[in-house]
Sequence to fold (70 residues):
Amino acid sequence: MRLSAKLSQKELGNKLNLADTTISSYERENSQADFETISKIANICNFKIFFKDENDTLISPEELSKEKDF
Fold:
């Protein structure tokens, strides 16, 4: 996502208030970002996250929240 958004690790880290070494660690799979951070990265890079239901149908987060009673 970062590369398609033409961001350096430092630029993305600055937008997330994270060190560029943290971004590097995610990319090298030495550590894993939590879902909130992944969502922020997707938003910054103009990606949309979808979920799959039990039938492998893609569902947007908005659709998912409408289906569930919270």
The longest strand covers residues 51-52. Residues 9-67 form one domain. The chain has a mean pLDDT of 91.
